[in-house]
Amino acid sequence: MDNLAAPGAKTVISELIDATPAGISRAEIATATGFSSSTVSNIVRELINTGEVDESPTASTGGRRTQVLKPTHRHDPIWLSEIGSAHARIGIADRPGNLVATEEVPVSLTDRPQVVLSRIIEHLKVLSEKALAKPSAAALGIALPGPVDRSLQMVVGAARMPGWNNVPLAPILNELVLAPVEIDNDARAGAIGECAMREDAPGTWNGIYVKAGTGIGGAAVLNGEIYTGGGGLAGDIAHNSVPEAGDRPCSCGRAGCMETVASGAGIIRALGEEGIDVHTVAQVVERAEQWDPVVTAMLRSAGTSVGRVLAPLVTFLNPTDVIVGGSLSSIDVFTASIRSELYARCLPMTTKDLTIEASLTKADAALYGMAELCFAAINRTNQGAPTSS
């Protein structure tokens, strides 16, 4: 695809076609949007492949008939979920980059996968029916807070998800939903979602994404593609050692990992040691917004730890952006401390054009990312290629 005239060109064109049920030609789209004819043609081809639009000739008036595009409104929506330790965020997407409804569902990762996934699917069916009057899905995307082997569609070696390790999830989900299934790590999904929102043109964005919530993880996007590493586990920044963690035991079995002092769970534990009664990341955020001095100091220290771990990666990869997502990203002092540490530890020529900021997609980054993966799976199906499940 040639360079797009503006970010979100696909969404603009899709919405224009949706708003013109009588039909609109490619030339009319180019005139209305200012996009080049090649950009319009490439995006239209993708929309046709994913079943979102049809192209057919207008009624004959004696001359050459014009080909016009119309919304199909036949495709089922995409069902999405990002699963956390105590809740899942679910969403419904009717096209890439467009969530029509979201909701929080209480879950517990200590339950068996079948229990958690069944509960999520039940809520997705209700939400889909309520939002779009469609009780079925074209595809299902699940983001999980642990290392995921996408080729096997399972969690591997997740310290905080012992009942999920090495359990094939696609067969469980295929019994619940008759649709292609995509499964990935939550930080990687968030990076995909952020990339989709930020890229002016496919294959151009270089960024590091950090998911900071109950746990902490990361992902790197190089020239618009997620870097997965040789074993598919790239981005696991949580278990780098930092001096301020001392000998604090970590869920991975080691001691001194960044996760013990910079994740939401680590901060909650440290606050408990200070006699401050908090049990959720939401409570930590609430206290930070009220400028609780102890909470603020811990978040500042946590951001410094994250910046210390990210600094060598920023120097090595030279990204254009470091994006902070997850619940803790809404706290300015946390993101500001990451920024300060990166400026202090990296060379000026590395940081002079570097953007360090909170996620554009906020709590929904992973949902947007899983939607991208699901629509890509639908596209492969329409083109006769195999999907992940």
UniProtKB/TrEMBL annotation:
<dbReference type="InterPro" id="IPR000600">
    <property type="entry name" value="ROK"/>
</dbReference>
<keyword id="KW-0808">Transferase</keyword>
<dbReference type="InterPro" id="IPR043129">
    <property type="entry name" value="ATPase_NBD"/>
</dbReference>
<protein>
    <submittedName>
        <fullName>Transcriptional regulator/sugar kinase</fullName>
    </submittedName>
</protein>
<dbReference type="GO" id="GO:0016301">
    <property type="term" value="F:kinase activity"/>
</dbReference>
<comment type="similarity">
    <text>Belongs to the ROK (NagC/XylR) family.</text>
</comment>
<dbReference type="InterPro" id="IPR036390">
    <property type="entry name" value="WH_DNA-bd_sf"/>
</dbReference>
<keyword id="KW-0418">Kinase</keyword>
<dbReference type="Pfam" id="PF00480">
    <property type="entry name" value="ROK"/>
</dbReference>
<dbReference type="InterPro" id="IPR036388">
    <property type="entry name" value="WH-like_DNA-bd_sf"/>
</dbReference>
